[in-house]
User: Which sequence fits this backbone?
C-alpha cells in the first residue's frame, strides 16, 4: 500500500484520541509514574507523558502479555473439560505513542511467533492491535536505531506515524490499511498533507556500527574471550530481556488446584543461570559470558540468518535499565572495531 | 583516591590478589563495577556519590571467584554486606582483601573482619526519616486500604528477580522460586505471584538486610520494595534489640532467645 | 440469607496442640466445627507461606498453635517459630494483610478446654470480620469459584 500523508492539527490529535476511547478501544500510552515513563492503559489525553525518549518498559505486553492464560482445565470423573484461551474475545487495542523502534520490534516478534508453528493467541492479539507511533525529536547516547535498519522517523511496523512539525501540528503518515481505516472513520480530523518536510523535525542519531559487518564477524567469535570480559559485571537479573520490545522467551507454568487448573505462559530470560539447565544437571550455558554471547548471537546472527530481520531495534532500553550498566552498544561497537 | 589506586595496583603487582573489584566510569553519567586484572588499569578506579552499586554481590559469583583472590573497594554499604556474608560463613578472611573507602575517597585498611565490625560500630544502619515517615503513613491506613495500596504498588512487577540478583545476600545457588517440586511461589506476575514473591523475599532477608538499597536501584520498574526490607529492620530492632551485621550475633531467624517477648500469642 | 460460616485452618503441632485437641474431643467438649486441623511435628516446621496459602485457598481465618515455650518436644522448635511469627506478623501488617485473622496460641496436651476456647473465639472474631474477600480476590479464588474453573 502506498503511504498517504496528511496534516493533523494538535487539537484534532486530541479529538482522535478521545474518539478511540469513545469507541471502546483499550488504549495504551506512555504514562509518567514517579521518575519513570511506563506504557500503561490511559483514559484521558492529559495522562499521556510528553518529552520522553523511550518508555522504561516496552509495549510488547499487548501481544505478548507478561502472564498469559493458554488454557484452563477441569477434570471430572467422566471427562476433562478444556477451555482454550485462543477462543476468547480479544479486545481492540491501540498503542498510542510508540516510537519507531517500538513499532519495528513487532516485526521480529511476529516472526518468532510464526515460525514452524503459528501461535494463534499471539496472532489474534496482533490482528486486533493498532499502532500509532510518534517519531523522535530527542535521542540520547543509548539510542542506536540507525545502526539496525531503523531510525527516528522510520515507519516500519506502524499503522500511522505522527511527526510533530515546527508549528505544533503533526504530519500523519498512513502506512497500512488499518491506518487508512482509522483515517476514514475520522476523516474530518485529517487535512491535506503539510508542506513542511519531515526530516528537519527528527532527532539526529548517528550510525554507530554496521549491522551486516557485525553479523559476518559473529560467525567466528563463538570462542572469543570478549563475552566473558564484557559480561563480568552482569548480575543475570533478566531486566534487559524483560524491558526489550523484541525478547520473547517464555516459561510455561501450570497452576493447579485439585482437579482444576490453568496453564500460563510467563516471561523468561536467557540471562538466568537456570534457563538452559537440563534435568540431568548439565547446563550448556554455564557461565554469564555464555549467556551474554547467546543474547548477542541470537539477536545479531541467528535471527537475521533465519528471517532476515535482526532481533534488536536499537531502543537502548536494556542498557538504560541494566543495574550493572552493561551496555549492548558498547559490546557491538567493540565487535565492530576489532 | 590516589592512595587507594596505589594500594590496589600494588596488590596486583605482588600477586597478593588476582583481581580488584571497584567502581569505574560507565555509560552516560553512570558508574559501574569494574574488574581489574592488570595493575596499570587501576587508574580507572573512581569513587564518588554516584557509586551506589553494592559490589559485595560479586564476591559470591562463580565467574568472579574463578578470576582468583579479589580485593574489593568497599564503601560502608559494601562493608556491611561483607560483614554479613562473613557472619554467614560465605567468605573467610583469607578469601578477600577489603579496601575500605570513605565518602571522601580516602582508603581505610582492614586486616580482619573484626576490624570491619569495629569500624561499622560507629556507622550504624540508620533508616532515613523520609522512609520512616512513608512507612508510618502506610501503617496508618486502614487495613483494606493498605492492602489495596500494596497490590497497586506491586502491580508493575513483572518478576524479573533483578531485586534478588542485585542483593549480595541472595546468594543461594538455587533460589526457592526456581524449584518446581513444588512451585512454592508462583512464577507468574499476577497479583498473588507478586505479593507472595515480595513477602518471601522480605522474610528471607529478615534481620539480614543491610539497607544498601541495591534491590530498589536494580528494579527496572522503580517499585519501592526496599520499604519492606527497611520495615523489617525496624521490626528487628524493636523486638530483638540492635540490628546490623555482626560476627558474634546469629541471624534473627536462625536463632532465638527463650525470653523473646510478644503480645499476640494466647 | 444464610449466615456466614467462617472457614478456619489450624496449623498445629503434633505433641501439644494436636493432643490437646484430641483431649477436647475425649472430654466431650463441644466447640465450633469450622476448623480444619493440619498436623505438623512441630510449630518450628510451619513455613510462614503456608498461612498465606491457606488464605489463598479460601480460608477466612488461621490458627497457629503449639507447645508452650520450654515445653517443645524438640526443645527449641517453638522458639524459632515464635521469632518467625513476630517478624511475619509485622510484615503482614505493613502489607495490609489482616493479622486479626491469624490467631497464635500455645496449647498444651492437657489444655483441652483451652483449645475449644481458642477455636470458638477465633470463629467469633472471623464471623464478625466477615469472609476474607480482599485476599480471595487477589488470589483469584473468587474468580475461580465464580467461573467454576
Assistant:
Amino acid at each position: 500500500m502506498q503511504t498517504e500523508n496528511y496534516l493533523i492539527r494538535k487539537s484534532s490529535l486530541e479529538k482522535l484520541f478521545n474518539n478511540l476511547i469513545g469507541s471502546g478501544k483499550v488504549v495504551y500510552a506512555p504514562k509518567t509514574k514517579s521518575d519513570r515513563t511506563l506504557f500503561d492503559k490511559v483514559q484521558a489525553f492529559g495522562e499521556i507523558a510528553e518529552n520522553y525518549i523511550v518508555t522504561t518498559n516496552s509495549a510488547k505486553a499487548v501481544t505478548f502479555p507478561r502472564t498469559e492464560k493458554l488454557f484452563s482445565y477441569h477434570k471430572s470423573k467422566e471427562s476433562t473439560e478444556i477451555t482454550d484461551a485462543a477462543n476468547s474475545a480479544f479486545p481492540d487495542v491501540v498503542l498510542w505513542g510508540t516510537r519507531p523502534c517500538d513499532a519495528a520490534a513487532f516485526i521480529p516478534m511476529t516472526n518468532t511467533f510464526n515460525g514452524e508453528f503459528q501461535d494463534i493467541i499471539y496472532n489474534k492479539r496482533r490482528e486486533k492491535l493498532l499502532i500509532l507511533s510518534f517519531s523522535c525529536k530527542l535521542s540520547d547516547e543509548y539510542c542506536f536505531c540507525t545502526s539496525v535498519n531503523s531510525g527516528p522517523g522510520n515507519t516500519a511496523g506502524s499503522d500511522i506515524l505522527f511527526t510533530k512539525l515546527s508549528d505544533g501540528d503533526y504530519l500523519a503518515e498512513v502506512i497500512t490499511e488499518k491506518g487508512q481505516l482509522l483515517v476514514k472513520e475520522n476523516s474530518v480530523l485529517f487535512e491535506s498533507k503539510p508542506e513542511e518536510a519531515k526530516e528537519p523535525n527528527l532527532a539526529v542519531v548517528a550510525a554507530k556500527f554496521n549491522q551486516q559487518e557485525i553479523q559476518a564477524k559473529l560467525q567466528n567469535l563463538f570462542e572469543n574471550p570478549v563475552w566473558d570480559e564484557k559480561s563480568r559485571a552482569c548480575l543475570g537479573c533478566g531486566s534487559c530481556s524483560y524491558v526489550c520490545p523484541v525478547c520473547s522467551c517464555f516459561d510455561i507454568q501450570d497452576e493447579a488446584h485439585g482437579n482444576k487448573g490453568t496453564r500460563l505462559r510467563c516471561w523468561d530470560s536467557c540471562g538466568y543461570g537456570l534457563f538452559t539447565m537440563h534435568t540431568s544437571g548439565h547446563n550448556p550455558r554455564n557461565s554469564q559470558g555464555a549467556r551474554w554471547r547467546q543474547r548477542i548471537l541470537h539477536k545479531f546472527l541467528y535471527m537475521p540468518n533465519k528471517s532476515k530481520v535482526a532481533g534488536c531495534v536499537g531502543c537502548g532500553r536494556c542498557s538504560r535499565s541494566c543495574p550493572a550498566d552493561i551496555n549492548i552498544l558498547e559490546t557491538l561497537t567493540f565487535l565492530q572495531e576489532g | 583516591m590516589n592512595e587507594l589506586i596505589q594500594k590496589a595496583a600494588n596488590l596486583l603487582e605482588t600477586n597478593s590478589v588476582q583481581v580488584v573489584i571497584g567502581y569505574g566510569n560507565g555509560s552516560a553519567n553512570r558508574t559501574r563495577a569494574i574488574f581489574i586484572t592488570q595493575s596499570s588499569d587501576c587508574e580507572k578506579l573512581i569513587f564518588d556519590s554516584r557509586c551506589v552499586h553494592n559490589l559485595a554481590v560479586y564476591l559470591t559469583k562463580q565467574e568472579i571467584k574463578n578470576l582468583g583472590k579479589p580485593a574489593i573497594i568497599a564503601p560502608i554499604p559494601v562493608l556491611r554486606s561483607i560483614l554479613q556474608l562473613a557472619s554467614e560463613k560465605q567468605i573467610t578472611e583469607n578469601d578477600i582483601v577489603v579496601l575500605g573507602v570513605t565518602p571522601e575517597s580516602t582508603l581505610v585498611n582492614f586486616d580482619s573482619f573484626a576490624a570491619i565490625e569495629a569500624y561499622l560500630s560507629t556507622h550504624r544502619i540508620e533508616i532515613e526519616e523520609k522512609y520512616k515517615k512513608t512507612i508510618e503513613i502506610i501503617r496508618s491506613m486502614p487495613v483494606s486500604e493498605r492492602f489495596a495500596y500494596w497490590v497497586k504498588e506491586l502491580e508493575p512487577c513483572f518478576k524479573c528477580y533483578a531485586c534478588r540478583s542485585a542483593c549480595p545476600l541472595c546468594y543461594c545457588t538455587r533460589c526457592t522460586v526456581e524449584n518446581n517440586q513444588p512451585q512454592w511461589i508462583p512464577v507468574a506476575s499476577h497479583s498473588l505471584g507478586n505479593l507472595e514473591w515480595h513477602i518471601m523475599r522480605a522474610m528471607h532477608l529478615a534481620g539480614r538486610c543491610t539497607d544498601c538499597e541495591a534491590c530498589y536501584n536494580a528494579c527496572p520498574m522503580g517499585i519501592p520494595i526496599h520499604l519492606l526490607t527497611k520495615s523489617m529492620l525496624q521490626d528487628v530492632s524493636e523486638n530483638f534489640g540492635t540490628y546490623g551485621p555482626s560476627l558474634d550475633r546469629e541471624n534473627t531467624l536462625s536463632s532465638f532467645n527463650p525470653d523473646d517477648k510478644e503480645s499476640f500469642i494466647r | 440469607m444464610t449466615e456466614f460460616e467462617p472457614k478456619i485452618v489450624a496449623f498445629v503441632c503434633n505433641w501439644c496442640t494436636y493432643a490437646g485437641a484430641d483431649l477436647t474431643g475425649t472430654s466431650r467438649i463441644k466447640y465450633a466445627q469450622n476448623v480444619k486441623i493440619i498436623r505438623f511435628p512441630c510449630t518450628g516446621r510451619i513455613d510462614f507461606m503456608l498461612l498465606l496459602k491457606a488464605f489463598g485457598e479460601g480460608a477466612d481465618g488461621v490458627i497457629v498453635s503449639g507447645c508452650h515455650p520450654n515445653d517443645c518436644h524438640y526443645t527449641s522448635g517453638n522458639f524459632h517459630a515464635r521469632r518467625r511469627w513476630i517478624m511475619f506478623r509485622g510484615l503482614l501488617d505493613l502489607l495490609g494483610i489482616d493479622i486479626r485473622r491469624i490467631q497464635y496460641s500455645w496449647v498444651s496436651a492437657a489444655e483441652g478446654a483451652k483449645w475449644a476456647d481458642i477455636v470458638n473465639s477465633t470463629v467469633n472474631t472471623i464471623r464478625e470480620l466477615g469472609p476474607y474477600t480482599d485476599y480471595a480476590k487477589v488470589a483469584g479464588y473468587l474468580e475461580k469459584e465464580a467461573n467454576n474453573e
In short: The first helix of chain A runs from residue 10 to 22. The longest strand of chain A covers residues 67-75. The radius of gyration of chain A is 21 Å. Residues 4-337 of chain A form one domain.
